[in-house]
Design a protein that fits this description.
By secondary structure, this protein is α+β, with helices and mostly antiparallel strands. It has 18 helices and 13 strands. The chain binds adenosine monophosphate and magnesium ion (MG).
Length: 547
C-alpha cells in the first residue's frame, strides 16, 4: 500500500508543508520479518532482518551542507531543504509522516575473518521514498545514535568522517562511479569522544549526521549472516525480496534466477572495481559488510585517493601491516568477497558447480572492462592485447619508477604530441608535459627518463596505428581521466575549516567536483598534487577506522 503524506508541522513557514510531499513505500519493513523486541538495547537478533528503532534526539542541529541534486531527485525544493523542519528531520529529531525507522541486521567478514553479527550500529533507515520518476530511494541517517546493533559503540559519527562521506559520495557520482549518495550533512551540536589513533588520547569532536540515499543498503554480509546461522528460510526470504525489489528485470525468484542474480552481482561488482581503479580510489575497508548487493560504493570510512601511483598504498592505518585492502588488491578482494556471498547462497542453488561458473563471470568481466578502461585512459579506440598488454604493463611499471601523481599524469599524457616527428625527440622533450606529475623531479635519473621516454615512444607508435588524431584522443582521455578528484588533503582542509565553523570550502568542493572532467581555470590550484605538509599528516595520508 502506497501512501502520500504532506508534512504539516511547519507552523512558522506554512509553505514548507505544501512543498514537502514525500511518498513513502516502506517495503523492506513491510515484507521482511521484524525483530519482535522494540526496546533499544544491544542484542543478538535472531530470525529477523531488522529492528525498529528511533534516532536519538540531538541538542542543536545545524545544517552544514546539502546536495541540491540529491534533493531534486527526491523532489525536495531548496526552500524545503533550507527550512528548520528539514534540519530537525535529517538530524534525527523528528520523523516525518510516512517514515518508519529501523536498523538492519547483517554480519560480515572483516579483514578475512568471520565477525558474526554486525548490523546497522550507527545507521538508521527512515524509510523508502518513491520519487516522481518512480525510483525507490531509501533514506538512511548515519550517526543518529545507538541501535540494537551498536555493540559497545555509541552510534555516533564525527564531523570529519561525515564531511568525507558527504563529499566523496557526491564526487564519485559525478566521476561516473556507482555509489550511494548523500542528501545532507548536519551538525548535531553535541560533542563525540574519539581516540583517533587508538593511542590513549581521546578528545571531544563535533558530532554530525549524514543522510545517505540509495535504492538499497543491503550488503553481502546481510546474506552471510542468515546462511551462517543456518536460517535458510530467512536467507531465501531476503534473496527473494532483493530480486523482486532491486532486480525485478530478472523475473520471479527460482533456483535458476538465483544464479542469474548472482551473476549480475558479479558483473556489477566488477564494473565498480574497474571504476575505482580508473580514478584511483582506495576504499580502505572492503569487508563483506561494506559490499553493496547493488554494486555501489558504500560506507565511506578510511578511504583515500591515490596521489603518487603506488598499488601497495592503503590509507587505513588499521591495515598498515598487511595492506589487505591496498589499491592493487581491490580486484582480488572483491572476488574473495563474492566467493563468500556464493558460499552464503549455496543452500539455495541446486547445481553448485554453476555458482563457480558465475564467479568466473567476475574475472572475465573485470579483465574485459579493465582493458577497455585502460584503452580509454590512453585515448585508444580499442584495447588490442597483441600490443596493449605490454604497453599497459610497462606503463604501470613506469608510473612506479619515481613518485608520480596518477591523476595529473593521465591528464598531462593527453597533451603529448603524437605526430611523426615526435618519435625522434629526446627523452627530455618528450617528457616535458609530464613534468608536473612528478613529486620529486630529482628522482628522475637518466635511466628513469630513458625508460619513460621509451614507453612514450611505444605509446606514440600505438596511437599512430590506432589512427586517432590528437584532438580526438585528448577529448576521449579528458572524458575518462578526471582533472579534479577529492584529494585527501583537500578534504582535510575543508574539515579543518568546518571544525572552525566555516563551511564554505565544503560547498566549494561540492561545486568543483560536480564537473571533475572539465577544465575549471579559476580552480586550478585544487588540481595541484599533494603539498609536502600533507605527506605525513593524519587525515591526509593516514586514516583510522575511528570516525
Ligand atoms: P565499518 O567498519 O565502519 O563498516 O563498521 C563495522 C560495524 O561497526 C558496522 O556494524 C557499524 O555499524 C559498526 N560501527 C562502526 N562505528 C560505530 C559506532 N560509532 N557506533 C556503533 N556502531 C558502529
Ligand atoms: Mg560498514
Amino acid at each position: 500500500m502506497m501512501q502520500t503524506f504532506f508534512h504539516s508541522l511547519c507552523v512558522a513557514k506554512p509553505e514548507i508543508s505544501r512543498l514537502v510531499a514525500l511518498t513513502f513505500d516502506n517495503r523492506f519493513v513491510r515484507e521482511l520479518p521484524a525483530d519482535p523486541e522494540t526496546a533499544n538495547h544491544r542484542r543478538h537478533v535472531i530470525g529477523a532482518c531488522y529492528s525498529r528503532v528511533l534516532p536519538t534526539k540531538v541538542a542543536r542541529p545545524q545544517m552544514v551542507a546539502y546536495s541540491r541534486e540529491v534533493a531534486r531527485q527526491l523532489d525536495l525544493t531548496p526552500e524545503v531543504c533550507e527550512s528548520d523542519y528539514f534540519v530537525q528531520v535529517f538530524a534525527g529529531n523528528r520523523l516525518s509522516a510516512g517514515m518508519d525507522s529501523y536498523a538492519t541486521c547483517y554480519g560480515g567478514h572483516q579483514f578475512g575473518h568471520w565477525a558474526g553479527q554486525l548490523g546497522d550500529g550507527r545507521a538508521i533507515n527512515l524509510g523508502e521514498v518513491i520519487n516522481r520518476q518512480g525510483e525507490r530511494l531509501t533514506l538512511q541517517l548515519k550517526g543518529a545514535g545507538r541501535t540494537p546493533y551498536s555493540r559497545t559503540a555509541d552510534g555516533l559519527a564525527v564531523l570529519r568522517s561525515s564531511v568525507r562521506e558527504f563529499l566523496c559520495s557526491d564526487a564519485m557520482h559525478h566521476l561516473g562511479v556507482p555509489t550511494t549518495r548523500a542528501l545532507s550533512l548536519i551538525l548535531s551540536g553535541e560533542q563525540v569522544i574519539r581516540d583517533m589513533f587508538y593511542d590513549g588520547h581521546p578528545k571531544g569532536e563535533p558530532g554530525a549526521v549524514v543522510c545517505r540515499v540509495a535504492p538499497s543498503f543491503t550488503r553481502f554480509g546481510s546474506f552471510e549472516l542468515f546462511a551462517t546461522r543456518g536460517d535458510i528460510e530467512l536467507l531465501r526470504k531476503l534473496v527473494d525480496y532483493t530480486i523482486r525489489t532491486d532486480f525485478p528485470h530478472l523475473g520471479e525468484p527460482s533456483p535458476e534466477v538465483y544464479l542469474t542474480w548472482f551473476t549480475e552481482v558479479c558483473r556489477r561488482t566488477a564494473e565498480m572495481i574497474v571504476h575505482w581503479q580508473r580514478v584511483g580510489f582506495v576504499h580502505g575497508v572492503m569487508n563483506t559488510d561494506n559490499m553493496s548487493i547493488l554494486g555501489l560504493t558504500i560506507d565511506y570510512g578510511p578511504y583515500g585517493w591515490l596521489e603518487n601511483y603506488d598499488p601497495h598504498w592503503t590509507p587505513n592505518t588499521t591495515d598498515a601491516t598487511h595492506h589487505r585492502y591496498c589499491f592493487g588488491h581491490q580486484p582480488e578482494i572483491a572476488f574473495w568477497n563474492l566467493e563468500q556471498l556464493a558460499n552464503a547462497i549455496c543452500p539455495l542453488i541446486e547445481r553448485v558447480e554453476l555458482l563457480q561458473q558465475a564467479l568466473n563471470v567476475y574475472e572475465e568481466n573485470f579483465i574485459r572492462s579493465w582493458q577497455t578502461m585502460m584503452a580509454g585512459k590512453l585515448g585508444l579506440h580499442t584495447f588490442d592485447p597483441a600490443t596493449d598488454d605490454e604497453l599497459t604493463t610497462e606503463l604501470l611499471a613506469v608510473l612506479q619508477l619515481v613518485e608520480t601523481d596518477m591523476t595529473i599524469f593521465y591528464r598531462q599524457l593527453a597533451l603529448i604530441d603524437t605526430g611523426r616527428e615526435s618519435l625522434h625527440a629526446s627523452d627530455e622533450t618528450l617528457m616535458r608535459p609530464l613534468r608536473e606529475a612528478y613529486y620529486v623531479p630529482e628522482q628522475l635519473t637518466g635511466e628513469h627518463a630513458a625508460r619513460i621516454g621509451n614507453w612514450l615512444r611505444s605509446y606514440i607508435k600505438r596511437t599512430q596505428n590506432d589512427g586517432t588524431p590528437d584532438d580526438l584522443r585528448r577529448k576521449r582521455m579528458n572524458a575518462i581521466n578526471p582533472k579534479y578528484v577529492l584529494r585527501n588533503y583537500l578534504a582535510q582542509l575543508a574539515i579543518d575549516e568546518a571544525e572552525l565553523g566555516d563551511f564554505s570550502m565544503i560547498n566549494e568542493l561540492l561545486e568543483l567536483l560536480r564537473h571533475p572532467y572539465d577544465e575549471q581555470p579559476d580552480k586550478e590550484e585544487l588540481a595541484a598534487k599533494r603539498p609536502d605538509w600533507a605527506r605525513q599528516r593524519a587525515g591526509c595520508s593516514m586514516l583510522s577506522c575511528s570516525s
